[in-house]
Amino acid sequence: MPTPSVYPQSVRAVSPALSPPVPLAPPPGPPSDPPPGHPISPPGEPFQGPPKAPLGIYAKSRPETLQDVGLFDPDTGEVLSPETKQAIDPVSVRLGRYVLQSQARRILGRDHRLFHCLHTRQRDRPSVDVLHAASSDSCYYSGLQTCASVWACPVCAARISERRREELRQAVNLWKAQGGSVLLLTLTNAHTRADALTSLLEGQQAALHRFFATRAGITAMSSLGRVGHVRAWEVTTGRLRANSNGWHPHFHILLFLRSSPSDPLPVWEDQLFGVWLRACELAGLPLPNRAHGVSLQDGSQASAYIAKLGLEEDRVSASSWSIEHEMTKGHTKRARNGETPFDLIRACLAGDDPQAARLFREFASAFKGKRQLVYSRGLRDLLGLDALLTDDELAARPDDDAYLLASITPEQWRAVKRADLRGELLEVARSGGPDAVAVFLLSLMSKPQC
Ligand SMILES: [Zn+2]
Asked: Which residue of 100, 144, 211, 359 has the fewest C-beta atoms within 10 A of its own C-beta?
């Protein structure tokens, strides 16, 4: 097996100072392992040979050097300060997800699947692999266990949500191109600090079923020209407010209509409020009030709507929001009027906050097993979408253009975990390729263990 030093010359052209002082020993692995820099073959199929043109793509799409990224001093192998890392975006966003995940791991403990996510090696894999996806210019791990928790795990959530969002974006565009319209309906009900999240969710789920199933609901949706919907669930907590009303779960529902409604949206909003009020009553939920219980908005106004709620962690401005972001990344947003679940993790990072930790555990337990997006029956067929993949399938699916960039031995991986530098290693790999990974690992391995 060739050493990683054969990997792209273009990497060194981009980062001339990154030639490692010492070559990396080839990682162990079966003879059939593809060499670094070559495409990943599907499981069970032989290695397909070298990529057609990965190096040029790689060099063009990645203007930064490691020094630009600010993570790593190639002369000394030292990892730079967190302050340096935080100054850079989107690198700091990707690093931040691993920082949040480490904190979530501490909060949730060993009994949660997240504890092993991107920490523990898969039993049948001799090494931990770093893959590079050229199209997104990002690196990720293979050969590690993943939790596929779209609710609790910041790393898995980003990966899964991004894929769901892209599919939803295409579905909305396709429907609009065919003359249809899409509205954004938001539903919630009254709640207090005394309400447990689990009971609120159970009540809301029952109320939503009635919202679409009662005679009044069926009539309203038929009049609107609804052909289907996609619903997402979102929750924030108002614990920091003077008069906290506790958990605030709510639905965002994309209504797919045959055409734009003839009546103004406030007229429809009034009618739908009556339907939702009755549905909450039948479900035994505290009743919604007219001011906050129902909101009906044109899809094109979603950006403004989202800006009221706050910016999502990996978006630099409200202008980059779209309706699909709102639907798939609700729990990762940084709400201005309340805290998202990931804000609770941030609160724990900022200092000892047992209340935030308790609430995050309650959130993770209440949402465990719930689907992030639910398409109404028949809508996916109508939109020509493939069968819905599970969170596990989405989390495990490699990118189509992924290449094996470096392999890490179990001993090296233990050193990475000990130093809590999993995110940093990926950015080093992305910016400098296998040579930089070699220097990074050598630096880690040479440090005395405390
Ligand atoms: Zn995970």
From this structure: 144
